[in-house]
Amino acid sequence: MAFSARTAAAAAVALAVAGLGATWYFSQSAADDAFAQCRRGVAPAAGQIGGAFTLVNQDGKTVTDADVITKPSLVYFGYTYCPDVCPLDNARNAEAVTLLDERGYDVQPVFISVDTDRDTPETMREFAAMLHPKMIGLTGSPEQISAASKAYRTYFKVQDPGDPYTLIDHSTQSYLVFPKLGFVEFFNRDTTAEEMTESVACFVDAWKAQQ
């Protein structure tokens, strides 16, 4: 996807309308936040990002968030036909997962497609397998994808519906999600694999300390 200034502006407007941006976060004392030592700023508003979803995995099986988020996960929304942003972001997430594996942290990358017309389970399986053996690829019906996107407060818009070569504008954050607990942090595109590794490791350590 060519993430142009126009696209970025449109996404910013959509996020603002959805009540995102700065409102994702609110001030919270360190004593109330088990992940305070891991955060770059203030804590996320509980329950505002993430939640239940029902999608179709790369094997064609209908799954829920409980089936997918069985370990710390990095969740990303995009599409396989994306010419630049999605492959780079997913590759970065996959590299971070490999670095975490080397340090003894079991984290899985999850790729949710917003392209219901072209991204079949088979397509998602091939794409995920190229990037990392642990990557889970998810697709679904327009209604299922829309519900998952709304749950994570993401933005996407098909530029030319019906065009088999259409591009899709979409937000590009990656979300760190834990089983049962849910969303705890997000990472922007400019976060490196090494930076993500350090941050995720801190969150996983803090999460395990609560078990």
UniProtKB/TrEMBL annotation:
Disulphides: C82-C86
InterPro entries the record matches: SCO1/SenC, Thioredoxin-like_sf, Thioredoxin_domain
GO molecular function, one term: metal ion binding
Residue numbers binding Cu cation: C82, C86, H170
Keywords: Copper, Disulfide bond, Metal-binding, Signal
Residues covered by the Thioredoxin domain: 44-205
Signal peptide region: 1-30
Family matches, as SUPFAM superfamilies: Thioredoxin-like
Stored CDD domains: SCO
Protein family according to the UniProt entry: Belongs to the SCO1/2 family.
Protein name: SCO family protein
